[in-house]
Amino acid sequence: MSTRTVIIGGGITGLSAAHQLHQQGDDFVLLESSHRVGGKIAGGPVEGSALGFDVDCAADGFLAREPEMSDLCRELGLGDDLVSPTGAGALVWVDGALRPIPPSVLGVPLHPEKLADSGIISDEGINELTIRGFADHPGLVGDAPVGEVVRARAGDEVFERLVDPLLGGINAGNSNNLSITAGAGALADAARRGGPFIPALRDHAASSAQGPVFHGIKGGSQRIIDALQAELSDHIRLHTPAVSLEHQGDGWRITTPSGPFDGDRVIVTTPGFISAGLLEPHCTEAASLLAGLVYSDVVLVTFVVSSEQVDHDLDGAGFLVPRDQGLLMTACSWSSSKWSHYNDGSHAILRVSAGRVDDRRWLDLDESTLVETLRQELALTVGLQGECVARVTPWRQSLPQYLPGHLERCDQIDSYLQRDSPGVTVVGASMRGLGLPACVRQARTAV
């Protein structure tokens, strides 16, 4: 007897689940509410620019040391187009200058003695890092906020000027409230080991030093979505939002404006607030946990200028901005330097991010004011001069915030669903990982 799976949501998690089912020869259908699949992976032209190619509107790469996304690319025939960043490091904007980030693990420096000339951390902060980083700490038990763990083991300055800009930028959140287990696994592992923190991080860095840290796809991440859509087109239903779930015999019926879809299994990959509405009539406890997730609103503004318009040497991946530096932007990626496929020899492509879960200032600005504010900040940080072309891509309610205990709550959701709604699985960014490899891994596990 064949088993049909209905996938709700056409982001990378839903598409990866569909790909896995397709490879296995299983019966399935994917329902997507919007006009396109891909979710937060998107790309397109920067209108008004002289670029002859599209540029990513969101994620432009993924961790290479978590193999699931790279493996998916190879399965789609894109293996030969996997690329890595140019190799130059990132910087941080501190006290009016761009300063290279020292060798670190998620922002925690591995060699305090090399920080003296960096200008990032004061002499007092370096001394605190040295004392705390080599002190004997008890092993971390359970989960805790990143801020609590790192401040105790590396000091306040390291946390505020390096760790939070990095992790808070990835999650558009506040690392004082970020689950170290769910959002900073390398730091959690070192803290659980107990003893001196910095030597534990050095061991982690040494064990993971082989191969590139990040991968991307030549031409941009949209090519991954295009390949998945081409493979799965017969199974994808666009403009088909799931309105409700209903028990149907031993399986489930998903009602949509286009009619019902029946399945023995349902894989729900939508944001937590949407998933909660579908599950609430059948599993109130799981729905309540999903509804409790807080999401941040962010915006990505892509600037395209002539290379001569930028005074600063753009040799690097870009820079981070600590929250105490007074800027609207949280980070700037130098895409034309970071990725060779975005370097046409004459233009600089600067992708500027703004917005955190506790910083919603950009939402109060109209588009022209937002662009002008960020243009002025680029003038301050990299010496941008003259007119520029900009593309504004808002991502509302885009990044769930993993508070301490998040993974335990995910386990509870799984348990409640197994008890009350057998055959229904929830996976995706709302659950066990924001990064693309984590989403693909969850999809494969669900299938």
Describe what you observe in this structure:
34% of the residues lie in helices and 22% in strands. With 447 residues, it is an alpha+beta fold. The strands form six sheets. A seven-stranded mixed β-sheet has the order 8-7-18-19-20-17-21. A five-stranded parallel β-sheet has the order 12-2-1-16-22. Strands 5-11-6 form a three-stranded antiparallel β-sheet. A hairpin with a 2-residue loop joins strand 13 (244-248) and strand 14 (251-255). Helix 1 crosses helix 9 and helix 11 runs antiparallel to helix 14. The radius of gyration is 22 Å and the shape is globular. The mean pLDDT is 96.
Notable traits:
seven-stranded mixed sheet; five-stranded parallel sheet; globular; alpha+beta; 447 residues; single chain; 22% strand
Task: Please state the overall shape, judged from the principal axes of the Cα atoms.
Answer: globular
Estimated structural class? alpha+beta
Instruction: Tell me about the largest β-sheet.
Output: 7 strands, mixed
Q: Given the structure, what is the number of helices? A: 15
Total E-strand runs: 22
CA gyration radius, whole angstroms: 22 Å
Strand order of the largest sheet: 8-7-18-19-20-17-21
Measured distance between first and last alpha carbons: 17 Å
- Strand fraction band? 15-25%
What multimeric state do the chains show? single chain
Output mean pLDDT: 96
**Uncertain regions: pLDDT < 50 for 5+ in a row?**
none
Q: Which bin fits the share of residues in helices?
A: 25-40%
Task: Give a brief outline of the structure.
With 447 residues, this protein is an alpha+beta fold. It is 34% helix and 22% strand. A 7-stranded mixed beta sheet has the order 8-7-18-19-20-17-21. A 5-stranded parallel beta sheet has the order 12-2-1-16-22.
